[in-house]
Amino acid sequence: RVIIVVVTQKMGGIAGSLSKKSPAKKRRVSVVLVAVAIAAASCAVLAFKAWDLQRSSGAAAANGAAEVAVGRPVGEKRPKTAETALALTALPTKNGGNGAVADDVVPECPGSPWKEDENMVGTRPGTVKKYKGSPPIHDAASCARVCCDSAECVTWQFRRDVGCLHGPDTRLGMEKDGVSAWCSDHPPYRWSGQYVLERSGGKVTNDRRSTVCNLKTWNPREVEGQCFGLGDVRTERASESAERCMEACCADETCGAWQWQKDKGCFYNKRMHGCQDASNPVAFEPFVGRRKFLPSRKYVDKSGKPWKQVL
C-alpha cells in the first residue's frame, strides 16, 4: 500500500508537468508513466504475498503448538470427518443411534433393495466371508455395489480391519425365522466368559470345573470376544453379574461354556464357537452392513411378532 501511495504521488507530479511539455515529450513521458505503474503494481503484489506467507507461517506455528498440546504430532494431518467416519464405519444419520450409518455412504440397490432402517453393525456369522474378487475392495460403498450386482450375495459387511465381507441371507438380532446364520444387532461388546469343558472331536477332553467354577481361581476375562452357539439369554438372576452367570453354568452339568455382558445378560450352553478375536481394539468397532430384503422372510421374533432393529 505504501508503494502504491508513493508512486501515485510521483505520477501526479509528473502528470502536472506534462502540460508544459511538447506533444512528443508528452507521449514519451506517458509511456514511462505506464511502465512505472505496472512496476508499482507488481511490487505491491509481491509485497502482499510476502506478508501473507509470513502470516500463514505464524498461524501454522501456533497450530503446531496446539496440536502438540492435545497430543497430536506436528505435521500429522487431522482426519477429515467424513473419511474417518467411513473408515471407522460409524456415521451419524438423521435418526442418530449407536453404529448408525449415513444414507449417502451406502448406495441404493434398485434390483434387490436393502432391507430398510437397519445396519449390520454386529459380529458376523461364519457364512459371511471376505470378498476375494478383483479388483480388491477398500471401502463400504464399493462393497455394497458389488454385493448388489451379485445374485449370490444377500448380506454384506465392511470394517477397516477385515475389509469387505459377502454372504447369503442372515438373521439379525431377535429374528427367529429364516436361516440359521445370525448377526448381532449391536456393535461388538467386550464380554466376560470361560470354557468349563474343553472339547475335541465332539468329546470332552478336559473338565475345568475345579478351577473355572471357583471364585478364587476363575478368570472371567478368558474369553472377551463374543462367541456363538450359546442360545438365548438366561434368567434374570443369572444375568445380574458375571459371577451369577458362572454359577448358573456350573450348576448345570451339561454347561460347557458361558458368557456375560452387562447390557445383554447371561448366556451359556454345551459349547460355544466362532469367538471374536479380542486382541485387536478395532475388533470392537461397529461394522457397516446391509442385507437384501427377501419377500419369503417374515422377519419375526420367537413369538411371531415383527422385529426391527433399534438404531
UniProtKB/TrEMBL annotation:
Keyword Nucleotidyltransferase: no
Domain Apple: 136-161, 238-265
Sorted UniProt keywords: Membrane, Transmembrane, Transmembrane helix
Any Pfam family the entry gives: PAN_4
Coiled-coil parts of chain: none
Organism domain of life: Eukaryota
Sequence intervals crossing the membrane: 29-51
Protein name per its UniProtKB record: Apple domain-containing protein
Organism: Odontella aurita
